[in-house]
Amino acid sequence: MGCFMKEVYGVIGGSEAYNLLRDGVFSLDRKFDVKTPFGDVRLFKVRKGNISIFFLSRHGEKRYSVIPSFVNYRANIYALKEVGVTRIFAWSGPGAMNLNLKIGEIVLPMDLIDETKRRDYTFFEKGGLGFIRSNPLFCEDLRSGVEEFFSKRGEKIRGNLVYVCTEGPRLETAAEIKKFKLFGGDLVGMTLSPEVFLARELEMCYCPICYITNYAEGVVKRDYSPSLLFGGMLEKNKFKLLRESVKSIVDAIFGAIEILNKRERICFCHRNMERYRLNGIIGEDWHTWF
Ligand SMILES: [Zn+2]
How many whole angstroms from 88 Cα to the centroid of ligand 1? Predict the structure, then answer.
C-alpha cells in the first residue's frame, strides 16, 4: 500500500441490501440516518474482507418502495458527501436497446443522454455555479478499476455504451425507443440522472455499473402481461440470473476498490469546482456553497 490520500467509497445500489447481507456478500457494521437539508437518508456501513464502504439503497430500504421519478437524489448525494465519501459506484439495471447485449450482462456506460423532465438537477439553485463540463461524464479512474477487475478474471466487459435516462414512472413507448436508438443510445433506464450531475457538483467521483434486465419496448416481441413486472417485458426465468449479476457487481466494486487503493488518483473529479474556489466565489467548506 502506498501513502495516497485515503479515499472513502460509497455505493448506491438497488434495494437488494438485505438480500446481499443475508447471502453474505458483505456484512453489516452499522446502519444509521444522516440528516440533510433535503431530508433524512438511511446509510449502511458494510464490510467485505478489510474494505468497508457506505451503502445506500436508492429505492428505499426494502423492496422497490421509491420509484426512480421520486428518488430524493439531492438528499442521497448530500448524505454520502456528509459522511466523507469521495468516490461513488452506482449500479442500476437498465433495459437494452442494443440486441448485442445479453440479459444479465454487466456493462459500463460511457455517456448519457438526459431525457428526464422534472427532477432536481442542481444544488446551486440560487447562483450560477456548477457550470461543470460533462465530458468525461463518469469517473475514468473508477471505470478503469472495474475494467481491470474483470480483465484480471479473463473477462472483458463492454465499456462504450450510451445510457438514455427517461423520466418514468411509465416505461418508454416503442417509438421513443426507436428515437433513442437513432440518438445512439444502447441502454435505457431512469436512475443515473441527475445522480451523476449532483455528485460532480460536490466534486465526487461517480461511476455507474449496469446489468441488463430486459430488452426495451419493441426491441424484441413480448406479449403484454399486466400481472407481471414491467408488463411481461422482464422474462420470469431470468430473476435468478439477475440476482447473480447483482452479486457480481458487488464483487467487482470491492475488487475495483482494492485495485484503486494501490494506486494514485488520476481523475479530476475532486477539482470540478476549482475555478470558483480560486476566484474566491466559494470557500473550502462545501456546506457553504449553496
Ligand atoms: Zn474521479
Answer: 9
Q: DSSP letters of 67-132?
A: -GGG--HHHHHHHHHHTT--EEEEEE--EESSTTS-TT-EE-EEEEEEE--SS---S-SSSS----
CA distance 140 to 143: 5
Question: 9-288: CATH homologous superfamily?
Answer: Nucleoside phosphorylase domain (3.40.50.1580)
Domain boundary assignment for the chain? 9-288
Distance 121 CA to ligand 1 centre (A): 20
Near ion ligand 1, which residues have CB within 5 Å? 139, 141, 205, 267, 269
Q: What is the pLDDT along the chain (290 residues), one digit of tens a residue?
A: 445 568 999 999 976 777 888 888 889 999 999 999 999 999 999 999 999 999 999 887 666 668 888 899 999 999 999 999 999 999 999 999 999 999 999 999 999 999 999 999 999 988 778 789 999 999 999 999 999 999 999 999 999 999 999 999 999 999 999 999 999 999 999 999 999 999 999 999 999 999 999 999 999 988 888 877 777 777 777 888 888 999 999 999 999 999 999 999 999 999 999 999 999 999 999 999 99
